[in-house]
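Changelog-adjacent note: as of this version, every example in the card shows the full chain rather than a window. The one below runs 56 residues end to end.
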Amino acid sequence: MTDNIENLTHEMLRRMHGKLDEIQAEMRLRFTGVETGLAAIEHRLVAFHLTDCRQG
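Full-length structure tokens:
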């Protein structure tokens, strides 16, 4: 009986670990997208600032 409970517990922990790995991979992709978007915004703001400095 104890072996069965240990096997079930081990299986549940293994599945949870796998799910956490999936979540971690998804979050890395999303953060990469956010960082890329922020970098693009920063680049555009610098370009606007340079244009404004040239006109003023």
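Structural remarks: The chain has one helix and no strands.
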